[in-house]
Design goal:
This protein has two domains: about 180 residues, Rossmann fold, CATH 3.40.50.1970; about 180 residues, Dehydroquinate synthase-like - alpha domain (Dehydroquinate synthase-like, alpha domain, Up-down Bundle). It contains 13 helices and eleven strands. The strands form three sheets. It has a seven-stranded mixed beta sheet, with helices on both faces. Strands 7-8 form a two-stranded antiparallel ribbon. Strand 10 and strand 11 form a beta hairpin. The protein is globular and about 60 Å long.
Length: about 400
């Protein structure tokens, strides 16, 4: 089969991202080549939302390639993304008899990838991990770049991704056939991260004309993307992975001193978004049955807040806000939400953000379409403007 391949070229840790329908079919044999003849065991952490046929076929193929595989199923949620889950998986690895030449394989969305990646980073101080993202969100963002981690609850508040490690995968296999099983809400959430990429960077040069930008391409193709046409989705994943890879190669560990903002720009919408996501009872539709907010929905709202904050500071004009909101509305993502608490409560949650430095809150804010900057210690009035803009 012919797949799109994006290279993530890091010193001593280069790997490929293989994209296309049926890409999982070749994983077992590729794992044997990557891991070498001494590797014998695989801890396969799977998302319960992934259809069984994909997992069953992969386990059979791994057996044919000489691997003993133990499957551990996780029903993804922020509440399961804990140290207790990591410890349980580490115990499974020990009872399986895994050594440092063996591997963890993650088949699932971002929660499963984050947990499995952290298990791989922690077990015997690091074993290989192969990421097989099953959602659009994890394909275009979470599976590439080596960020792993779990949440901590302290004093009744949830601190997202507060414990973790950078642990680059040996391979990423993005089998876009897995996306067929996603419901409409999961698809929309994945598109939120694609919009984020389009808003922060000028884009990766188009293979044909060498100058098209991701944002321009998405605006032209948005109807096909929203309809989830296979050709458009494969192209969307490839373009977003290429953009994410280019950012990661320039700033692997999110250095606060990275030129032009580096990897930190990938957090556009996340400072507001993470704070909103941790609030209980919020619904993207207003119907309590749809609560809580999913990650992509919180990011969409966070991007709206960031744009409104930037406009209030004079960093960008109204056209940036308009383009963003129109894209989100066409996709079906929320731009306002009811039930938000007071500004002070949300700002307090924002202060827990990992991007804060020296007590100063750092925001990624747009200067224009495809251009963002990092602002330290933004005035409270701008934070208020951002939150007022999404209050339904």
């Amino acid at each position: 089969m012919s797949f799109r391949v994006v290279d993530v070229d890091l010193p001593d840790r280069a790997y490929e991202v293989r994209i296309g329908r049926g890409a999982l079919d070749e994983l077992a044999e590729e794992a044997r080549v990557l891991l070498g003849p001494k590797a014998r065991r695989v801890l396969l952490v799977r998302d319960t939302g992934v259809p069984d046929r994909f997992v069953d076929t992969l386990v059979k193929d791994l057996g044919g390639a000489g691997f003993e595989t133990r499957v551990c199923a996780i029903t993804p949620s922020e509440s399961i993304k804990t140290m207790a889950t990591v410890e349980a998986l580490l115990r499974e690895a020990i009872t399986l008899g895994m050594t440092r030449v063996d591997a963890v394989i993650a088949v699932g969305g971002g929660v499963v990838g984050d947990i499995a990646g952290f298990v791989a980073a922690s077990y015997q101080r690091g074993v290989p991990v192969i990421q097989c993202p099953s959602t659009l969100l994890s394909m275009v963002d979470a599976s590439v770049g080596g960020k792993t981690g779990v949440n901590l609850e302290v004093g009744g508040e949830l601190y997202k991704n507060m414990v973790g490690a950078f642990h680059q995968p040996r391979l990423v296999v993005a089998d876009t056939e897995l996306l067929d099983s996603l419901d409409a809400r999961q698809r929309r959430c994945g598109l939120a991260e694609c919009v984020k990429h389009a808003m922060i960077c000028g884009g990766v040069p188009d293979e044909d004309d060498g100058h098209s930008e991701l944002l321009g391409w998405m605006l032209r193709e948005l109807d096909r993307i929203v309809a989830f046409e296979p050709g458009a989705i494969d192209e969307l994943v490839a373009r977003n992975v290429a953009l994410k890879a280019s950012v990661v190669m320039g700033d692997e560990r999110e250095s606060p001193d990275a030129k032009s903002g580096g990897r930190m720009l990938l957090n556009f919408g996340h400072t507001f978004g993470h704070a909103i996501e941790t609030l209980e009872g919020l619904s993207p539709s207003g119907d309590p049955a749809d609560a809580p907010l999913h990650h992509g929905e919180a990011v969409a709202l966070g991007m709206c807040s960031a744009c409104a904050a930037a406009e209030s500071m004079g960093l960008c004009d109204e056209s940036v806000v308009t383009v963003l909101r129109e894209m989100l509305v066409r996709i079906g993502l929320p731009t306002v939400v009811g039930g938000l608490p007071g500004v002070d409560s949300i700002v307090a949650r924002m202060s827990h953000d990992k991007k804060a430095a020296g007590g100063a809150l750092r925001l990624i804010l747009p200067e224009g379409l495809g251009r963002c900057v990092i602002i330290s210690d933004a005035p409270k009035e701008s934070l208020e403007a951002g939150l007022v803009a999404i209050r339904g």
